[in-house]
Amino acid sequence: MERYLSREDAALYLTEQRGLTVSKNTLQKWVTTGGGPEYQRFGKRAVYLESCLDAWAERKLSAPRCSSSGS
């Protein structure tokens, strides 16, 4: 069974497990501006599933590149 992660733990997961530096403050900002990972509410707290964080990170990554020219 998958665990729910707090915003702080979600930021640590993305940074330490996935190597994608994201702060808990940035996750909070994306809640109001959009563009962040899917989350749910548990009372007043936002909680994230690892699978949702992984899927969001994959969507945000560009295709592999061999040069910066985009060709």
Written account of the structure:
The protein has 71 residues and is an alpha+beta fold. The protein has three helices and three strands. It is globular and about 45 Å long.
Structural class: alpha+beta
The first-to-last residue Cα distance is 43 Å
Mean pLDDT: 94
Strand order of the largest sheet: 1-3-2
Ranges where pLDDT stays below 50 over 5 or more residues in a row are none
Beta-strand percentage? 15-25%
Largest sheet: 3 strands, antiparallel
Total DSSP E strands: 3
Radius of gyration: 14 Å
Coarse shape = globular
- Tally the structural domains: 1
Q: Which percent bin holds the helix content? A: 40-55%
Number of helices: 3
Give the SSE string: EHHEEH
Comma- or semicolon-separated keywords:
single chain, 3 helices, HTH_17, 71 residues, DNA-bd_dom_put_sf, alpha+beta, 3-stranded antiparallel sheet
Task: Summarize the topology.
Elements lengths: L3 E3 H11 L6 H10 L6 E3 L2 E5 H11 L11
Compact description:
The protein is α+β, with helices and mostly antiparallel strands. Helix content is 45%, strand content 15%.
